[in-house]
Amino acid sequence: MSNGHFSADSPQKSVSSRRTVTVAVICVLILALAAVGFFLVRPALDPYHCRMADGVSIAGVDVGGMTKGEARKALQAALDETLYRENLTVALPMESITLSPADTGVQVDVRAAVNDAYRMGRSDGSLPGNMDLRPYLSVNSEFIRTALEGYASEFDTEFSDSHYALTGDAPDLGTENHDPSAPCQTLELTVGVPEAHLDVDSAYDQILGVYGQAVAACRAGEYRVTVDIPAESAPAELDLDAIYDEICTAPVDDSLDMTEYRFVPGSYGYSFDLDAAKAALAQAKPGETVSVPMTFVEPEILGDAVYFRDVLGSCETKHSDNENRNTNLRLLCEALNGVVVQPGETFSYNDTLGERTAEKGYKPAPAYSGDRLTDAIGGGVCQGSSTLYNCVLLADLEVVTRSCHGATIAYLPLGLDAAVNWGTTDFQFRNNFHFPVKIEAETTVDLVKMWILGTDEKDYYIEMTSGYDDSREDVIYAVSYKNKYSKETGELISKDREAFSTYYRNVG
Q: What per-residue string of b and e applies to 91-128 under the rule 16 or more CB within 10 Å gives b?
C-alpha cells in the first residue's frame, strides 16, 4: 500500500455532462428543422415571391406581378414620357408663359413609391385588390415663386378708362359747299385697362394642382394653368350704339319751305359701319385703340327732281377758238353752275364770280373797255353774263341791273347783251317767283350753254325780238321786246319793250 494522490471523475459528474450535450444537439436539430420548415412553407405564406401584388398600380402605371426593379423601370419610363417631357403653360390674361420640367424642378420619388406599392398586401396578409398609389411629388418652389413674382411686375396693370375720339377736321356737310372727295375724320375707339394684380400664392397653388393631377395619371397631354387676374376696378364698356347716335348724322334732302316758299338745300350725312366697328372692338385687347373710318352719306337731292323739273329759259352762244378766252368761259360756267336763287333773292353776277384775277386762273383775252377793244384779265366773261341775261328774259324773271356794251357784239342780237365789269358794271336779276330757281351752265367745243330751272307755273311763253335804228353812221340804237304767247292757243298776249341800247359802230 502506497501514500500517493490522483484524481478521477466521479460517476455523478459524468452523467451531467452527457445530458448537456444531448440538449444542445436537440436544440440545433430543432433550429435546423425550423429553418428548413420556413423555407418549405414560405411560398405558401408569400404567394407573390418578392413581386408586387396583382392589381397594384402607381400613378396609373400597372406594376402588379413586377419586382421592385421592374416596377421602378416601368414608372420611370412613364414619367419620362409624360411629366418629365411635357412643358407647363401658365396662361395669363395678356400672354402665356412656358415652363419646362427643368425650370420647375418637378420630381417624383420613384424608389419610395415602389416600396410603398410593394408593401400593399403584405402588412396584414390581405390581398389589396385594385389599388392605385399616388407617389410623392416635389418641385422647385423657390424658382416658381420667383418667376411668378417677376410676371406679376410685368402683368400688373394700372387703371385707364375706355374712351373714344374723332381725329381730323370736321367736314362741311352742306350740299352747296361739300366736297365728297374730301378726307373724312377717323373714329378712335380705345379699350380701357382694368387695375389688376397677380396673386402669386393662388397661381402657385394652381401649378401644384396641375402637377398633382399629372402625377395621379401618367398620360401625355397639355399641362396648362389658366391664371385669372381679377380686376379690382373695371373700365366702362364702350356703347357703340350710343356713340353712333351721338356723332352720326343722316343725310337731308333738298326741301321747300312752303311757308316762305324758299328752297332749303340738303346736306350730306356722316356715319361709320356700326357692325364692323363692333366686330373690331370685340377683338381688341385692353389698352388697344381701334380706328374706324367715318364716311359721307349722300342725300337723294330731291330738289333737282321736284323743284327744278322745268326749263324756264335757256340760251346758247357761239364762242371763238381763242384759248385764253375759252379758259375764262369755262371758269365762269363752273362758278355759275348749280347756283340756286331763292324766292325774293337778288342774284349778282359779279358777286357770284368774284373778281377775275390771274390767281383764280383767269387769262388775258380781248374785252371791251367802253367802245375800245383791249386785252384784259377775264376777257370774255361778258359772254357769260349776256347768255344768262337771255335765260332770265325767257324765264320772265325780274331784271334789276343790265347794261349794254359800248360797241357791237357778234354772239347775240343787238339789244340782248349784258355787259359786266368788276367794280363798276354788274348784271343782276331778282327771283320774283314763289319757288327757287337754279342756274346750270357749261361750255362745249364751240358753245356756251345755260339754263334756268324751276317750276313752270306760267300759262304763257316768251320770245325776244329786237329792232334797230341805223339813222346815224357812228351809232346804232337797238330796242328789245318781250313777246308773250299763250301756251294754249299760241296767240300773242303782249309785246312789251324791255330795253333800249346804244352801240358805237367803230371800235378803236
A: ebbeeebebebebbebbbebeebbebbbebbeeeeeeb
Is the same domain home to 377 and 472?
A: yes
What's this model's pTM, rounded to 2 decimal places?
0.53
Q: In which residue are the cell numbers 359786266 written?
A: 420
Which ranges in 248-348 belong to alpha helices (H)? Answer: 274-283, 302-306, 323-336
Q: Which domain holds residue 137?
A: 56-155
Question: What is the mean pLDDT, run by run of 10 residues, along the chain of 508 residues?
Answer: 37 54 63 53 54 88 91 90 86 78 90 89 62 85 87 76 93 83 92 82 86 76 74 82 96 82 86 96 93 93 83 94 94 95 95 96 86 85 97 98 92 95 96 94 95 94 91 88 96 95 77
Q: How many structural domains comprise the chain? A: 3
d(C-alpha 497, C-alpha 425), whole Å:
22
All 3 cell numbers of residue 466? Answer: 329786237
For 383, the 3-state DSSP assignment is helix
The cell for 118 is 410593394
Q: What are phi and psi of 200, to 5 degrees?
A: -60, -45
Could you tell me if 354 and 487 lie in one domain?
A: yes
**Chain centre distance of CA 220:** 42
- Same domain? For 146 and 169 the reply is no
Q: To 5 degrees, how large is the angle CA 388–CA 400–CA 474?
A: 75
Q: What are phi and psi of 207, to 5 degrees?
A: -65, -45
